[in-house]
Specification:
This protein is α/β, with parallel strands linked by helices. The protein has helices spanning 13-25, 43-46, 58-61, 77-90, 188-198, 222-230, 233-257, 259-274, 301-307, 392-413, 438-443, 462-471; strands at residues 2-9, 31-35, 97-99, 101-109, 114-121, 128-139, 163-165, 180-184, 203-208, 214-217, 295-298, 311-315, 318-321, 325-328, 333-335, 338-341, 354-357, 360-361, 369-370, 374-375, 381-383, 417-420, 429-430, 450-451, 479-482. Strand 1, helix 1 and strand 2 form a beta-alpha-beta unit.
Length: 490
């Protein structure tokens, strides 16, 4: 049975980043990265639908330790995937990835201060099981089910004579040239798909049950590109990154404190794009901004497709599928050759990994999230989980830094175990995420909870987390540290 100091699960954006932090700060520690799929990159390798791109700028979605050098701040999936691969190769962590290793179960033993990890491997002719042990388990598995997305049960769906496609399982050879396409959904995937498919399709209709707030911004950051010409790459990157972090935080705070003003700003932006005659109901949700994530439109591509007549937005509900399309509850019928169900993800923490601590199964919904990365009463385990209101990697970078600090602290003091403990009688329990997106609401009962006070409170604020995770005390009265258990000689 192989043993490692640290085991990282997942070779996506956060997993590769975690490994690079570990290599820079703990060069002597042994580690491996277990990846269930047969490729690096996670989301950016999995999704293959037309136009797939980031919905955050790459100066904050990129790693803190490796500048983003491309001209486009809003990058497409191939560029992001290339960035991940180059980073992995530059720090040599690509050699530590074991592909086709799907982690199924992890069991902690306090007596041994070890995780025993059971892994399913894809060896022919049958899948075989393997076991590893590690001192610290670091989960970088993302937040959704990689096997399948969410598709509602619509009446008559079996009657439709055309093709039905979910973006998470995009057929490589799908031909939509000159065809009528209906994209069901209004989130980031739909907003990306519609203008991309409209370049070749006869017409694309975005059918949404309810609207989403949409904002347009340039794909290239002119200030960033100017600074990169004037300053060394790393210095420019630091300035640009902080500029974007602070702008994100400013507009998020404005949206939460003055929602009516922010709604007016967003509506004015849509009016400027589509004209005074356009019905704003298609971009006017009933909820407040940032109750759900805003959708980003780079270089106005969605609005261009609507203005040119290549795309249409319809706000209505599906009554049933027909042989030739969709019958809506308003009585309108949408003809379609291809229907794309951009209806969301299935939230799945830890990729379905089952945990036990000293023989007792861990129910994540009964735990509390410590600093947004660890779980109450679960020793030597951290999880990379990004922000809902900013770039994913901002929080994941901070988490990796914290884990490296934690490991150093344990080494210096001879500790073998660290466990967050809830010991504040005045702490009240709250839902994990204050977010009303469908994929969150469908899974809310399965998620860890948060508390009313730090360190159990999820700030969703990079500046606050920076202070707590990069500079805050490790021995904070909540984290319990233990030295190795020494058994008597019998």
């Amino acid at each position: 049975m192989e043993h490692f100091d640290v085991m990282i699960v997942g070779a996506g954006l956060s997993g590769v980043g975690a490994a690079c932090h570990l290599r820079q700060r703990h060069a002597r520690k042994s580690f491996t990265i277990l990846e269930g799929r047969n490729a690096m990159g996670g989301t950016w390798d999995l999704f293959r639908y037309p136009g797939v791109r980031s919905d955050s700028d790459m100066y904050t979605l990129g790693y803190r330790f490796r500048p983003w050098r491309d001209a486009k701040a809003i990058a497409d999936a191939p560029a992001i995937l290339n960035y991940i691969r180059e980073t992995a190769a530059e720090f040599g962590v690509d050699k530590e990835i074991r592909y086709g290793h799907r982690v199924k179960h992890a069991s902690w033993s306090t007596a041994d201060a070890l995780w025993t990890v059971e892994v399913e491997t894809e060896k022919s002719p049958e899948k075989t099981a393997a076991q590893f042990t590690c001192r610290f388990l670091y989960l970088c598995t993302g937040y959704y089910d990689y096997e399948a997305g969410y598709t509602p049960e619509w009446p008559g769906i079996e009657r439709f004579g055309g093709q039905i496609v979910h973006p998470q399982k995009w057929p490589e050879a799908l031909d939509y040239e000159g065809k009528r396409v209906v994209v069901i959904g209004s989130g980031a995937t739909a907003v990306t798909l519609v203008p991309a498919m409209a370049e070749r399709a006869a017409h694309v209709t975005m059918l949404q049950r309810s609207p989403t707030y949409v904002v347009s911004r340039p794909a290239e950051d002119k200030v960033a590109n100017s600074l990169r010409r004037l300053l060394p790459a790393r210095a420019a990157y630091v300035i640009i990154r902080w500029k974007n972090v602070l702008l994100q935080q400013f507009f998020y705070n404005l949206a939460r404190t003055r929602p009516d003003l922010f709604k007016w700003m967003l509506a004015r932006g849509v009016r400027n794009q589509l004209g005074e005659q356009y019905d704003l109901k298609h971009f006017t949700p009933k909820y407040n901004p940032w109750d759900q994530r805003l959708c980003l439109v780079p270089d106005s591509d969605l609005f261009d497709a609507i203005r040119d007549g290549r795309a249409t937005v319809v706000t209505d509900e599906i009554d049933n599928f027909t042989e030739t399309g969709l019958q809506l509850k308003s009585g309108e019928h949408l003809d379609a050759d291809i229907i794309v169900t951009a209806t969301g993800l299935v939230l799945k923490l830890m990729s379905g990994l089952q945990l036990t601590v000293d023989g007792a199964p861990v129910d994540l919904s009964k735990t509390m999230a410590y600093k947004g990365m660890m779980y109450s009463d679960v020793p030597n385990l951290a999880s990379a989980f990004g922000y809902t209101n900013a770039s994913w990697t901002l929080k994941c970078d901070l988490t990796a830094e914290y884990v490296c600090r934690l490991l150093k602290h344990m080494d210096q003091h001879g500790y073998a175990q660290c466990t967050p403990r809830v010991n504040d009688p005045g702490l009240t329990v709250e839902p994990a995420i204050d977010f009303t997106s469908g994929y969150v609401l469908r899974a809310l009962d399965t998620l860890p909870r948060q508390g009313s006070k730090t360190p159990w409170r999820l700030h969703q604020n990079y500046v606050k987390d920076l202070s707590m995770l990069r500079f805050g005390r490790l021995d904070d009265g909540t984290m319990e540290f233990k030295a190795p258990l020494i058994l008597p000689n019998l």
